[in-house]
Amino acid sequence: PEVKDQLIQDLDVPLTELIAQLVENGTIDDFSTMLRLLIEGLNVCNLWKQNPEIVLSAVTLLKVLLNCPLSGEKEKVFWFSTPQIMTALAMQIKEASQDPVVLPVLAVPILEAAALLLRCGEGILSNPHHVALVFNIILTVPLDQRVYNSVFLGIHEVLFAILQCHPKVRSKLKKKTWNAASCPRDKTIYLPIRLFLLLFISC
User: Fold this and answer.
1) pLDDT at 17
2) In angstroms, rounded to a whole number, what is the distance separating the alpha carbons of residues 3 and 22?
3) What is the pTM (predicted TM-score) of this model?
């Protein structure tokens, strides 16, 4: 069930411990059901229905799962779902960007989840296209004045995760990212983000 942001923060540690136990003791079917519910929570229809709390709960569950030790079939099932999860996060950011009330609630948690996903996927996410999906997130999120510092820091963490954990993939993405940052299709991309991306790919 969906819960409020502050309550999620207060329950962070016990929630992580609980999910870790469920993952460890549950069957592969149990884990698949949990993952399916997570992906359903990331469905953009939840924002269309004015249910950002469901999305926030799903993003929180994603971050908790990434902090749980996964192995065997559960690990395979999770990382097989990564492209779908990353695409869903990008769609959430794009939709939230249209609502100045929802954007501050979802932008930072989604960026944090994307950065954590890239870090945990070191050595696993070998397909450049899968890593490239994260650029659909950072090239869409606007720097809303109220959360400017947090959003910019979140973008920095995502880019640094690529630099640190996916250097080979980064080199393959240079041309794609240069074109996207120089001539973005989405005109809502602010100049600081574009300059930051251009600096990033020139490293």
Assistant:
1) 84
2) 19
3) 0.81
